[in-house]
Amino acid sequence: MASPVVTLIGGESTGKSTLTRTLAGHLSARHGLRCRQVDEHLRQWCQQAGRAPLAHEQAALATRQAELIAEAAAADDADIVIADTSAMVVAAYSALYFDDDALWADALAWQRGYDLTLLMGLDVPWVPDGLFRDSPEIRQRTDALLRQALQTAGLPFLTIYGQGQDRLQQALRPLGRLLGRPLADDPPAWGLGRASWHCERCSDPGCEHQLFTRLLPRAG
């Protein structure tokens, strides 16, 4: 029986890799769960090649990411698979950089087979990595493409916000529901950075969450 799969997707510098590692470590150390972590194949490829991929290389990258996730899910030594991105992110980059929408169909089909999709919010600072990250604007546009694709396809997803432990706890709540056991330390505290805003317009500058967040520093 395949292990349940959780994928963390989002634009560049949204904390996908950090949260993937944190979740895997926490679930193993705190809850005794056997976690299989799937790293982002695209980043590994870029580091090895020393460059960003070209248009004709995108499809193979998306396929390999899906294969790595499938291989981890099929292994018999894991209670849960946590994947740092999916083919959705490669499809978004292909559409953004090369105006090529050909990868969406397969990416969405693979995504539909996963048990939980967590979209990283844009409330963490954008940090250059000295390699392949472009700009906060690219991050925003990638986020918009991912949201549009998921919503158009009718695929459910949850947006994860917060810093540090708050971000971890937000991710643990839906994972707990998926596994049928409580994993988070505490319930959401509305207005204190721990509430889960599952609004589909969270990348909209007029969104209630963003407006509320802007007001918080003025409080007190």
Give structural attributes.
220 residues; alpha/beta; Rossmann fold; five-stranded parallel beta sheet; 8 helices; 5 strands; 10% strand; globular; disordered C terminus
Secondary structure elements and pairings:
Layout: E1 5-9, H1 16-31, E2 35-38, H2 41-49, H3 58-74, E3 80-84, H4 87-98, H5 104-112, E4 116-120, H6 136-153, E5 158-160, H7 165-179, H8 208-215
Parallel strand pairs: 1-3, 1-4, 2-3, 4-5
Describe what is shown at a glance.
By secondary structure, this protein is of the alpha/beta class. It is built from 8 helices and 5 strands; from the N terminus they run βαβααβααβαβαα.
Structure write-up:
The chain has a single domain (5-218), classed as Rossmann fold (3-Layer(aba) Sandwich), CATH 3.40.50. 47% of the residues lie in helices and 10% in strands. It is α/β, with parallel strands linked by helices and 220 residues long. Strands 2-3-1-4-5 form a five-stranded parallel sheet, sandwiched between helices. The radius of gyration is 17 Å and the shape is globular. The chain has helices at residues 16-31, 41-49, 58-74, 87-98, 104-112, 136-153, 165-179, 208-215; strands at residues 5-9, 35-38, 80-84, 116-120, 158-160. Helix 3 runs antiparallel to helix 4 (87-98).
